[in-house]
Design brief:
Layout (H helix, E strand, L loop, with lengths): L4 E4 L6 E2 L1 H14 L7 H7 L7 H6 L6 H18 L1 E2 L3 H10 L3 E5 L4 H10 L8 E3 L12 H10 L6 E5 L2 H10 L2 E4 L14 H10 L1
Parallel strand pairs: 1-4, 1-6, 4-5, 6-7
Antiparallel strand pairs: 2-3
Helix pairs in contact: 1-4, 4-6
Length: 207
C-alpha cells in the first residue's frame, strides 16, 4: 500500500452526532437569550466555509470561552444517548488497523467533546493522533490540523489520505495538498461522493 495514514473527520464521517450538535447549539443560544434555530438550518451550515460560525449560530464575532463551556456542558451530559456510529464504521477502523494503517482524527469539535465521543463509542484507542479545533490556531478549512497530525507521526503528505463529509474538509485537504475522499452520509449531500462504507474501504485500498 502506498498510503500509511488515514485521517478522518469525526462528526458526519465517523459518527452521527447531528442530534447532539443541534441541541448543544440551541442550548448555547438559549443561554444567550436567542431563539432556537431549526435543525435543517444548523446541519446545512456546519460544513459551509463561507460563514463565520460564531456569527451565524451565536451572533458573536468569535467563539468565547463561555460558548465553549455551555456547548461542552450539554455535550457531556447528553452525548451518550444521542450519538451513534454510521453503519460499518467500527468494522472499517478495525480492518484498516489490521492492514497496518495508522489512523487519525481531524475534527473542528472541541477536544473535550471529541474525546468523550470517541471513548463512549470505544474507538479512542484506535487512533494514533487526534487533532481538534482548540489544538491549532485555525481550524478547518485551514490546513494546520492536518500538518499537526503529519508532524506528530513523522509522515509526509503523500503518505496520507483524508476522509471527510463536507466543504471544510475538502478545502483543508486541498490547502494541505493531501489526497481526499468525500463521503455522503453526513451533514452534506454530494452526488459524486462515496455512498457506502464498503466503497470507502475499497477506495482507500486503491490508493
Amino acid at each position: 500500500m502506498s498510503k500509511k495514514l488515514v485521517i478522518f473527520d469525526m462528526d458526519g464521517t465517523l459518527i452521527d452526532s447531528s442530534l447532539t450538535i443541534v441541541n448543544a447549539i440551541n442550548f448555547v443560544r438559549n443561554n444567550l437569550g436567542l431563539k432556537p434555530m431549526e435543525e435543517k438550518l444548523i446541519l446545512g451550515s456546519i460544513n459551509d466555509p463561507k460563514i463565520n460560525p460564531a456569527k451565524f449560530y451565536y451572533d458573536a464575532e468569535s467563539f468565547t470561552p463561555k460558548h465553549e463551556e455551555w456547548f461542552s456542558d450539554y455535550y457531556s451530559l447528553n452525548h451518550e444517548k444521542e450519538i451513534r456510529f454510521y453503519d460499518g464504521i467500527d468494522n472499517l477502523l478495525t480492518t484498516l488497523k489490521l492492514d497496518g494503517y495508522r489512523l487519525a482524527v481531524a475534527t473542528n469539535a472541541y477536544r473535550v467533546s471529541a474525546i468523550e465521543s470517541l471513548k463512549h463509542l470505544d474507538i479512542y484507542e484506535k487512533f494514533d493522533v487526534i487533532a481538534c479545533a482548540d489544538d491549532v490556531p485555525l481550524a478547518k478549512p485551514h490546513p494546520e490540523m492536518l500538518y499537526k497530525i503529519l508532524d506528530e507521526l513523522k509522515l509526509t503528505r503523500d503518505e496520507a489520505i483524508f476522509v471527510g463529509d463536507g466543504e471544510r474538509d475538502l478545502l483543508a485537504s486541498q490547502n494541505a495538498k493531501i489526497d481526499y475522499l468525500m463521503v455522503n452520509w453526513g451533514f452534506s449531500d454530494y452526488s459524486d461522493a462515496i455512498h457506502s462504507v464498503e466503497r470507502l474501504q475499497e477506495s482507500i485500498l486503491e490508493f
